[in-house]
Amino acid sequence: MPDDSVQLHLTSIPYNVGKSYGDSDTIDRRRHHFYLGFMLQTLSEMTRTLAPGGVLFLQVGSTRIDDGGLMPLDCVLLEHLRAMGLTYQNRVVWTILHGLTPRAPGRTPRSRADTQQRRAGALQRQCRAYSPKTAGQACL
Ligand SMILES: C[S@@+](CC[C@H](N)C(=O)[O-])C[C@H]1O[C@@H](n2cnc3c(N)ncnc32)[C@H](O)[C@@H]1O
After folding, report:
1. What integer pLDDT is reported at residue 135 of this predicted model?
2. CA proximity to 97, closest of 83, 118, 82
3. 126 or 14: which carries more pLDDT confidence?
4. Whether residue 12 has its Cβ less than 6 Å from ligand 1
5. What's the mean per-residue pLDDT of the chain?
6. Residue boundaries of the structural domains of the chain
7. How far is the CA of 14 from the centre of ligand 1 (A)?
């Protein structure tokens, strides 16, 4: 895709939590830094193709790191996205029944541990070098 050509990217990236996608049981089960590098390549391409003032809407959950712990992906990615020239705009958080271990229809969660938070971040590509005077203004 050409540089600066897209007004909106909307994506739900894989989380690297061991989900089985299509015919692969290993594609979502990478070492954390391998997965992180793959996601940064993908997000870098989205940033390159985003027009100045364009928006990246990024849906994420948590990723599993190499010691088995969970890390919120928006926190893992934010500094990288800023370094790519994106400005954080907003965050949407919603709580759902745990998405990776679905329960029978109609069954309600027994505890907070049965629910999972999903987050979506909106980030805007900067129009120009950052200036406090113009921060937050739309590109003209
Ligand atoms: C969290 S899901 C998003 C699903 C999508 N929003 C939808 O509603 O169909 C992540 C998606 O990334 C895809 N995916 C995972 N690893 C991939 C890879 N290495 N290359 C290309 N796509 C991949 C999966 O097949 C899956 O469709």
Report:
1. 60
2. 118
3. 14
4. yes
5. 85
6. 6-100+114-125
7. 5
Q: Indicate the pTM of the whole model.
A: 0.82
Q: Residue 99: beta bridge partners?
A: none
CATH no., domain 6-100+114-125: 3.40.50.150
CA distance 136 to 86: 12
Q: Is the CB of 85 under 6 A from ligand 1?
A: no
5 Cβ inside 6 Å of ligand 1: no
13 within 8 A of 27, measured Cβ to Cβ:
no
pLDDT of residue 52: 94
The position carrying tokens 């949407």 is: 92
- What span, in angstroms and rounded, lies between the C-alpha atoms of 92 and 112? 19
Is 53 a pocket residue for ligand 1 (Cβ < 6 Å)? no
Structure confidence by residue, pLDDT tens digits, 59-111: 998 999 999 999 999 999 999 999 999 999 999 998 877 655 545 556 565 55
Alpha-carbon distance 35 to 13, whole Å?
11
